[in-house]
TrEMBL record:
One of its GO terms (molecular function) is 5-oxoprolinase (ATP-hydrolyzing) activity. The lineage of its organism: unclassified sequences, metagenomes, ecological metagenomes. Pfam families: Hydantoinase_A. One of its GO terms (biological process) is glutathione metabolic process. Residues 387-413 are annotated as: Disordered. Residues 48-239 form the Hydantoinase A/oxoprolinase domain. This is Hydantoinase A/oxoprolinase domain-containing protein. InterPro entries: Aldolase_TIM (IPR013785), Hydantoinase_A (IPR002821), Oxoprolinase-like (IPR045079). GO terms for cellular component: cytosol.
Amino acid sequence: MIKGLDFDDVLLVPNYSHFESRRDVSTVTRLGQYEFFVPVISANMDTITGVAMAKAISRVGGLPIRGASVDVLSVGAGGGSIARIDAGGALRVGPESAGADPGPAFYGRGREPTVTDAQVVLGRITPEHFLGGRMNVRPDLSRSAIGDLSTPYGGDATAAAAAVLRVVNAGMERALRVVSVERGHDPSASGGFTLVAFGGAGPLHACELAASLRLSRVLVPLYPGVLSALGIAAAPITKDLSAAALLTIPADGDGWRDAERTLSRLAAKLERQGAKELRRENLPLPPRERAGVRVSRFLEMRYVGQSYELAVPADSSSAAGRELAPASFLPTFHALHQERYSHSDPARTTEVVNLRVRLTVATSAMEMPRLAPSRDDPLLGHREVWFPSPSKGEGRGEGAVNGPARAAVYDRS
């Protein structure tokens, strides 16, 4: 059974993602996840740790966009990303993409070399089983397209394909480091993170990325290629509203009662507006009670003098319904600031810039078919697959090597 998680689950619950069901995932992973997916044109990465992941200002392609959003980092690298040799002789991959039409040369319509074509040349995609064998594909065109890149590699198409994957994986690795190391998370911490790979080609990159980040666990969910679509289908119905607050909150408690009253009035106004809009859209909102609706509040806060905010959940777990009292949300803000920026100052005056309210209407859980046990031979066949393999030479010590390797020494190999 898949039950969609909403934005608040992402903010408040460890191990949950923002647009797919993570209830099943969280039973097999430990606290914290990196996740990424490789659709046609981009890869998305984020870190799920149980702390707030919303941000008021996002960047897409390096351009700032002001508006509440889930903190997800995207890179222009995916299965359709086009590989080329630039004027300086360097191999580049993306951000240009072949998309779905014409798509990779493998699809039989395009001629540009892409990441998917590199995977085909290395044997990691089996043509006869692609899309369940229902799609006519052209591995010969993949080899021809990648061959056009092979001059710097001595005409070796396999070496060119391996280089394409090294370049695209390097971009994904940088993005994963941005959402981990640069935010104070140690990827290799014992019992720490699991790399969750989904999307049509995400699992093909997962092991090499995990090795680069020294992650010990990789999880590929069931139906990874359509996991995002499943998440959208299962997600609850929500209505988001926000309003400027612009309240100064002194650390000494002065004016706290007035601030609480102002925020409470503003929240009530937004909730009434949201309920009205939900009813206007003929959504299943109870007419006189909130039994089927979940109301969540978030404060966009900062220290006075800062130009960026943190989204602070003001949930209903506070005592006596005082979630909008500064005494309730200030400790949360300081803790989040410490987690994100490695410093905080409880004695410093803060500001509430905006108040956001989200109304969530629960939807029915999706019943997913279970995989029936089968006695059929799961082996589909044999094929050659290329993976990087380190070599261990004479006099290099007795250290362990991860993965398959060759040992070339005096009396044996």
